[in-house]
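Consider the tokenized backbone below.
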């Protein structure tokens, strides 16, 4: 009995703290959502690229309007459109060719994930898919996201990342807004087809 009473304040304190924190978080999230815009507000031609090097681990995340990569954002129904989506997917599945990591760094792909409404979602129920489809049409915009994790045996050789091949493969991409976290700290950069080299 006594033990239970003593335990009470300790049990209550973290709970109220957690509630306050989650409330604050929800507020921050809404605020950020308004500032940066939702999916429907992405800018065609512009994609964001997050690059983080931590020890031997290199992570690259791409968030791109589908327009930049396949030339449209609706669900692929025609054979021609399906072929374009399949081709983009194939390129994104070979990030070493897109991001031209220095060979000396000996980076090996450990994990990759591709995500887009355009890729279809076999694991979802048909009804849910239809709903997403309607939702997508309403806004008229779709993204293609890709994330990769590499293990680089000689990470110290990672001085640059050359994105020329990326721009060449996806000419609908005019600008990459890059956030880079590396040994030298955090920096932002804007890459274009004529200025496609990122320095760590
Ligand atoms: Zn769009």
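A designed sequence for it:
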């Amino acid at each position: 009995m006594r033990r239970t009473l003593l335990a009470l304040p300790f049990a209550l304190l973290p709970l109220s703290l957690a509630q306050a924190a989650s409330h604050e978080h929800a507020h921050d999230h809404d605020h950020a959502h308004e500032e940066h815009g939702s999916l429907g507000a992405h800018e065609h031609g512009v994609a964001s690229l997050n690059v983080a090097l931590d020890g031997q681990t290199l992570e690259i995340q791409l968030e791109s309007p589908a327009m930049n990569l396949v030339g449209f954002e609706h669900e692929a129904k025609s054979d021609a459109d399906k072929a374009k989506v399949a081709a983009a997917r194939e390129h994104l599945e070979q990030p070493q060719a897109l991001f031209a990591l220095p060979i000396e760094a000996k980076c090996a792909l450990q994990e990759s994930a591709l995500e887009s409404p355009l890729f279809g979602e076999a694991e979802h129920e048909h009804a849910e898919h239809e709903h997403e489809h309607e939702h997508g049409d309403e806004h008229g915009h779709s993204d293609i996201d890709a994330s990769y994790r590499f293990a680089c045996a000689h990470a110290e050789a990672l001085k640059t990342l050359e994105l020329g091949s990326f721009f060449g493969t996806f000419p609908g991409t005019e600008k990459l807004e890059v956030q880079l976290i590396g040994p030298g700290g955090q920096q932002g950069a804007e890459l274009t087809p004529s200025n496609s080299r990122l320095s760590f």
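The longest strand covers residues 143-152.
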